[in-house]
Amino acid sequence: MSDKSHFFAHLARLKLINRWPLMHNVRTENVQEHSLQVAMVAHALALIKNKFFGGTLNPDRIATMAIFHDVSEVLTGDLPTPVKYFNPAIKEEYKKIEKIAENKLIEMAPEAFREDYAALIDHHYHSEEEAFIVKAADVLCAYLKTLEELAAGNQEFKLAKKRLDKTLKEYQSEEVDYFLTRYVPSFSLSLDEITLDDL
């Protein structure tokens, strides 16, 4: 059995895939850094659900799933949301492309760990509850990006914020609402404001 694999070299290239490619960005965001933020937020959502709303999730598994939630984009690139969801046919075809890319990456993983990575990358291994937490964290992080861009004076993200705000409300999720109410307002403050508050 060969122990050579290009899997990790491919994953390292996630930092070369920029998000929001059709929009002017004050600060460019890549898929690798986005995935870390999604992992942090997903971990927090799982903790919130467990501590306050009767959840029994594994926050560590949720965080690891979130790290890998966009890995297929190293092969497909980041297709802008307005294009991806332009109509049901495009959405359906893109899901097929994502699935092919996911399977290709799983095949690249070292043979000894292939099932372990399949459990993180292949959505069939995820419970509905786990998948929701990761998706909600993904949307929350996109929402935080719109807040940062708008705070920097970039009105390009105005409609995106409105759309994401609507999506988050439609979730009717206690853990999402908790995060939005208690933690999101800080993202609109300056460094001095969030620092002085903790002194």
Topology:
Layout: H1 7-11, H2 31-52, H3 59-67, H4 73-76, H5 81-84, H6 88-108, H7 114-121, H8 128-151, H9 158-171, H10 174-182, H11 191-196
Helix pairs in contact: 2-3, 2-8, 2-10, 3-8, 6-7, 8-9
Write a structural description.
The chain has 199 residues and is an all-alpha fold. It is built from eleven helices and no strands. Helix 2 crosses helix 10.
Q: Can you summarize this structure?
A:
The chain has eleven helices and no strands. The chain has 199 residues and is an all-alpha fold. It starts with 6 loop residues before the first helix and ends with a helix.
Q: Which CATH class? A: Mainly Alpha
Shape: globular
List the domain count as a whole number. 1
Here the CATH topology equals Hypothetical protein af1432
Structural class given helices, strands, pairing?
Answer: mainly alpha
* Proportion of strand residues: under 5%
| Rg of Cα set | 18 Å
Give the ordered list of helices and strands: HHHHHHHHHHH
End-to-end Cα distance, whole Å, is: 57 Å
List keywords for this structure.
Hypothetical protein af1432; 199 residues; mainly alpha; single chain; globular; 11 helices
